[in-house]
Write a structure and sequence with these properties.
Chains A, B, C, D: InterPro entries: Metal_Tscrpt_repr (IPR003735), Metal_Tscrpt_repr_sf (IPR038390). 4 copies of one chain form a homotetramer. Chain A is an all-alpha fold. Chain A has one domain (about 5-85): Methane Monooxygenase Hydroxylase, Chain G, domain 1, CATH 1.20.58.1000. Chain A has helices at about 5-30, 35-70, 75-85. Chain A is elongated. Chains in contact: A-B, A-C, B-D, C-D. At the B-D interface, helix 2 and helix 3 of B face helix 2 and helix 3 of D.
């Protein structure tokens, strides 16, 4: 469950990401130098990872903690391995 | 220089990415399960990497080839190392 | 705490990795083609990740589960974020 | 072709890596704390990447440059994409 504080922070980051994607579109329309385009793509990846990090930490503190204390631990082990080796790349 | 064919392909991908970012925003507003949100973020990363791959290949075939044949090789070695170890992550 | 079953599996993997590192050394001594050397390096990374994955899963099932149930949750949140975003790369 | 200077540097790094792998083996035998084991694995990955980086730069300056100037450019584009998106991970 995404707590309200994380929610507003994540939404603010997403509006920045939308601006970055529009900026990337403009660079491609204007046929900017490839390495500058790749730098913009890399910045969007980093901003997205910022959102991901906060969602992961929120997940650890809420769902995983409840799950290991009283719920279905196996499900959470499986999901955590997926987060570590796929979803956080 | 981004050739026209790559340009239109990349712009189509970007419109899909914009839709995915809007979808992510909706999931966060609706406080969806964290792992589903992380899966959406991972899908956006993958779509962005698709754009990046095409820009990198275009760069190899145009700027790098011209640069190594008659231009400033040192500049291209440096940029290529940056692409391999930073911009393609 | 590394359970005995994981321990023997990890030690078997490590003896394979030692062989791969010796193989890499031989390729460099014999000045093999760079891309073949890089392929060998990539194989060693993959084998090492195999060991890492098992240690991470073992950690989740033992230390993290005990820690979140009755121990110092904050310490484990911090360590898990370090695993996700640094130690598993 | 791996030039002699890179060769000796890479071989020195490999002897350090062998020591690190032996250290990792010892930690697993002695059932050290999982996060410490993962930190050691991460250090070996970093040391391996150091070797990889030098081989990639050497490859750019020798094989790729010769290849794009007078050889089979298509083969090198394909290999470079493999380096960027697989072998450098």
């Amino acid at each position: 469950m995404i707590d309200p504080q994380l929610q507003s922070k994540a939404l603010r980051r997403l509006s920045i990401i939308k601006g970055q994607v529009n900026g990337l579109e403009k660079m491609i329309r204007e046929q900017k130098y490839c390495v500058d385009v790749l730098t913009q793509i890399s910045a969007i990846h980093e901003a997205l990872r910022g959102v991901g990090r906060e969602v992961v930490e929120n997940h650890l503190r809420t769902c995983v903690t409840d799950g290991l204390r009283k719920g279905d631990a196996e499900k959470h082990y499986k999901e955590l391995m997926d987060i570590v080796y796929r979803l956080s790349k």
